Amino acid sequence: MSGAGLDPKTAPTFPMAAKAMMGDVQLRKNVRHATDVIQEKRARVVSEMPDWQELREAGKQIRRHTMEHLDFYLEEFEANCTRAGGVVHWARDAEEARRIVIGLVKASGSDEVIKIKSMTTEEIQLNSALEAAGIHPYETDLAELIIQLGADRPSHIVVPALHKNREQIREIFQREMNLPELGGRPEDLADAARMFLREKFLRVKTAVSGANFLIAETGGVCVVESEGNGRMCLTLPETLITIAGIDKVLPRFQDLEVMLQLLPRSATGERMNPYNSIWTGVDGASAGDGLRDGARDGLRDGPRVFHVVLMDNARTEILADDEGRQTLNCIRCGACQNVCPVYRQTGGHAYGSVYAGPIGAILTPQLQEMHHAQSLPYASSLCGACYEVCPVKINIPEVLIHLRNKVVKQNTAGVAGLFDVEAGAMKAMALIFRSERRFRAAQRLGRIAERPLVRRDAQGEGWIGWLPGLLGGWTQARDLGEMPKETFRDWWERRGENGN
Amino acid sequence: METDLVTNSRVGVLRRVRAATGRASDGVAARVGWDGIAREYRRRGTLEREGVLALLEDRLRDYDARVFRVVGEDVGQSVAERLVERGVRRMVVPVGLPAAWMSASAAVEYVVDEGLSSEELDGVDGVMTGATLAIAETGTFVLQGVAGQGRRAATLVPDYHLCVVRAEDVVETVPEAMGRLQGTAGLATTFVSGPSATADIEMTRIKGVHGPQFLDVLLIV
């Protein structure tokens, strides 16, 4: 792996990347095991909930309502967060968000930061921008630490290093932490991470986090995690910088009663993850009385300086698209990845983006205005499993088809579209399918034409691994099965009237 | 100049949001819309008192916490037993923790957290707190920045946490908990469900990564 962030602008197309990944047997085994385990746990804790479908419906309605009134709730969050002593910033795009964060870190006087796992910071490739500005970021989530030390890239929204097994992780830790004697049990590896990071938690004075939810009613922020690394970053440093997409808002504190039931069960298959932190502004700032001031000086609980960066980065373009808008409802649980037959075969890196799997297939093209991720809406079998598990009922197949339409329109727009080969081929196909005579003729012709291309495997099955000319696009990333000796129609007719 | 830029971004993002939704939203419409959200999920539990407590115990144990039921006057004694079992010598306690909970034992030193540094917290064996409430269905207790529960860092840095929960503060479901927390929603609030854990390595659950590795809960009945 290059260690560079996953960037749809430079990544190979999904079919090309997927073909390469399919050859990595170890990776596929690791991904299969991890997704099997989470799916099984999720199914068990979801089946405990008699009201799961009602919760999903409430989750969907809360998210949809928030998007309809997003401007109101963003302003409400800003006002309440500011009143509690936080400082709210707005960023139109990734570039602006990076600039704001770098400026805030420099103002904090630190040249290093501790970080909580955050997909938003991955999305804007914050780590490399920080490095370029002379600031060293330490990832503190175990999986993110594995990724960072291994110069790797995340492959799952919730479990970013699920493509690595314990032996691979051990090798990375032995090398990067200089621990040649390190054991190979998961406990040994977690202990090594604990030792490695404890010193950073106690020393580094500035932290960067994402947010699971922003609560408009209180100006509070909620972060959901398991290891306690999040709590370390949120409470020990003097400065905390939280960066969140504008889609992360929840209207009221009470809405957490829905999200805190849906998210942990969907994400990690737990009834509740070990730690949820909710904080509002900076400690004591809203009280204003002498007692709390005294308490603030003596009993500091959390950072004294707190910033929130509200980032758009193409979310408003998704909001403007009636059919695509539901993509913004996503609460980043990753359940759709675990059930997706395509993701389970290819792993996350093939998607060329930090958002992999079904949600990545719809989120990435929209965040990137389609130009750089045209193949992603096709990276799905449309089986619907993702829709079924989505805790906020995002109809991912529906959005996939909507985006496929957009891709076709984009490619057939203008003069170039008149000469579009795929569109021409589709027209020819339509002509063939409309006539039985033409269809049978095409089948006969196909069987003759394929003869020199068919290769037989050990079982005697015929496969075509290469097609000439323009047809070659099909076989670039997959093999084609040999046409059957007898068509269904021929077989049916041969059976005769009585079905013998 | 810098201020102009900041203001422009704010105006720019909000303008794009309003262009996307086709209007500027107002508080009245938002309130009406929010009130209309269907909430047909369970808002309160169905179990009897004993059932709720048993569920909490079961769910906490499922997450590798130990749970002990005690009657009020025996808390100090039970605390002493737990600390002996855990081999704890120096115990941090928040300001305002009931004195009766701190067993008089020569073997344990209680350090009241009046603003200990992170390094000092790193040097003690454990921490004891009360809790605002507990949620049976998820095996969770909730800590807030109040007397008897103290600062967030104190329940995070030491390796052992002993939490004392009153039976009357145990609710069955998450919605019941959020309803009780509504009045103090502005306080720093931490939901704790079992000891610190990770499943990042081959989905194997491992206890104790960065937060406390060991968790005992005393349930005052």
From TrEMBL, chain A:
Pfam families for this protein: Fer4_8, LUD_dom, LutB_C
Which GO molecular function annotations are given, in alphabetical order?
4 iron, 4 sulfur cluster binding; metal ion binding
Q: Which Gene3D superfamilies match?
A: Alpha-helical ferredoxin, NagB/RpiA/CoA transferase-like
SUPFAM superfamilies associated with the record: alpha-helical ferredoxin (SSF46548), NagB/RpiA/CoA transferase-like (SSF100950)
> Domain of life, per the record?
Bacteria
Q: Where is the 4Fe-4S ferredoxin-type domain?
A: 316-342
Q: Which InterPro entries match?
A: 4Fe4S_Fe-S-bd, 4Fe4S_Fe_S_CS, FTHF_cligase-like_sf, Helical_ferredxn, LUD_dom, LutB/LldF, LutB_C, NagB/RpiA_transferase-like
| Record keywords, A-Z | 4Fe-4S, Electron transport, Iron, Iron-sulfur, Metal-binding, Repeat, Transport
The UniProt entry's GO biological process terms, in alphabetical order, are: lactate metabolic process
What NCBIfam families does the record tag this protein with?
Answer: LutB/LldF family L-lactate oxidation iron-sulfur protein
Query: What is this protein's name?
Result: LutB/LldF family L-lactate oxidation iron-sulfur protein
Question: Which organism's genome codes for this protein?
Answer: Tunturiibacter empetritectus
From TrEMBL, chain B:
Q: What is this protein called?
A: L-lactate dehydrogenase complex protein LldG
Organism equals Tunturiibacter lichenicola
Q: Which Pfam families match?
A: LUD_dom
SUPFAM superfamilies per UniProt? NagB/RpiA/CoA transferase-like
- Positions of the LUD domain: 118-220
Domain of life according to the entry:
Bacteria
- Give the residues annotated as coiled coil: none
